[in-house]
Specification:
Length: about 70
């Protein structure tokens, strides 16, 4: 049986410091967001769990990654 878990990947940081990939905010760790490697007008492209642009520029976020374990 496969188990998939979302685990922290590094330390809390700002959106600009975050590597491209999944992240959660410290206020709402149950909502997975995504940061693209692309930028628009000098701002990183990031999207919340609803697919809208993520606007929390000054919020602390936690980069995360998906880990699959076989039991």
């Amino acid at each position: 049986m496969l188990t998939k878990k979302i685990v922290p990947n590094g330390w809390p940081c700002t959106l600009e410091e975050c590597p491209p990939g999944m992240f959660v905010t410290l206020e709402h760790p149950d909502l997975v967001c995504f940061k693209s490697e692309y930028t628009t007008n000098g701002k990183p492209d990031a999207f919340n769990s609803g697919g809208e642009y993520f606007c929390g520029k000054d919020d602390l976020i936690q980069p995360v990654m998906l880990v699959t374990e076989e039991q």
